[in-house]
Automatic annotation (TrEMBL):
Tagged with keyword Protease: no
Family statement drawn from the similarity comment of this UniProt entry: Belongs to the LysR transcriptional regulatory family.
Coiled coil: none
Protein name as annotated: HTH lysR-type domain-containing protein
Domain (HTH lysR-type): residue spans on this chain: 6-63
Keyword line: DNA-binding, Transcription, Transcription regulation
Taxonomic path: Bacteria, Bacillati, Actinomycetota, Actinomycetes, Kitasatosporales
Protein source organism: Streptomyces violaceusniger
MF annotations from Gene Ontology: DNA binding; DNA-binding transcription factor activity
GO CC annotation: protein-DNA complex
Length: 301
């Protein structure tokens, strides 16, 4: 096929000459020599099988065939240039799709503001939000199911992942209102180590953290129930099956009759963070930057 030998450089050279109707001016605009430009036009004419430009020592003019071909060549270049501009926008994270993973109970008070700001700032990025329960504390970032995640460290993420802390808060003990600790506003880790406890399913760094494993030494926790959601966890605690360890925001967003939330005074605070994989999409990095920016100006409650 003749078209197999036609390149964009041929079309761009022809359109420039046809617009300028002057080889020297066109060559200067294309940053090439006039002989090279003349050779490029001859190559295109030889490939097409007809003359595009009538040349004399004084003037350059389009032939009828050249006039017809000019419209098509311009259309091809416009489409190509448009496609490249769109590709640049996609590569810059301004257009496309982004998959956000969200661990239940994480940044409940900040996520609406973050999502609104992202939609306003990047309206051409389609954001798909998926909520993950306690069985998947990595919120899909470990399997590639998501591009960016809001979660609670520590979690087992691939090497090279980035974790940007948004907020920190105390950890609390969640106990039944029938429990001896329910009347207290504060407790110590030592008060909790011998208590039956409700845990997340599975295993891993995240589960161990909420079981206070770093405080237990050789003594294993007495796990009496596994719950994948806050609802299941709190139901088990309210029925006095055991205690659980939760972030302080649980007392605000999951408060209900039958439960008490004394603060654990000597446990490290827990974090809410936005996490990125080792090679994040530009749109994912935009989201993470915006999440950090938004949470920095929202007053802590």
């Amino acid at each position: 096929m003749r078209s197999m030998n036609v390149e964009l450089r041929h079309l761009r050279a022809f359109v420039t000459v046809a617009t300028e109707l002057h080889f020297n001016r066109a060559a200067a605009q294309l940053h090439m020599s006039q002989p090279t430009l003349s050779q490029t036009i001859r190559q295109l004419e030889d490939t097409l099988g007809f003359t595009l430009l009538g040349r004399t020592t004084r003037s350059v003019a389009l032939t009828p065939d050249g006039q017809m071909f000019l419209a098509e060549a311009r259309a091809v270049l416009e489409r190509f240039d448009s496609a490249m501009r769109q590709a640049e926008r996609v590569a810059s994270g301004l257009v496309g799709q982004l998959r956000l993973g969200h661990l239940i109970g994480s940044a409940i008070d900040y996520i609406p503001a973050i999502l609104r700001a992202f939609h306003e700032t990047y309206p051409e990025v389609s954001l798909e939000v998926e909520e993950f329960d306690f069985r998947s504390p990595e919120a899909g970032l470990d399997t590639g199911a998501t591009d960016v995640a809001i979660l609670r460290p520590p979690v087992d993420l691939p090497s090279g992942s980035e974790v940007h802390v948004l907020r920190s808060e105390p950890r609390v003990a969640c106990v039944s209102d029938l429990h001896p600790l329910a009347a207290r506003t504060e407790v110590s880790v030592a008060d909790l180590l011998d208590q039956p406890i409700v845990a997340a399913p599975g295993s891993g760094t995240w589960r161990d953290y909420w079981l206070l494993l770093d405080h237990r030494g050789e003594n294993a926790p007495l796990v009496v129930y596994e719950a994948a959601t806050f609802e299941a966890e709190l139901q088990a605690v309210a029925s006095d099956r055991g205690i659980s360890i939760a972030p302080a925001t649980a007392a605000r967003f999951y408060a209900r009759p039958g439960l008490a939330y004394p603060t654990i005074t000597d446990a490290s605070w827990c974090d809410v963070a936005v996490a990125l994989p080792p090679k994040p999409l530009p749109a994912a990095r935009h989201f993470a930057h915006l999440a950090v920016q938004i949470t920095s100006v929202i007053p802590a409650v």
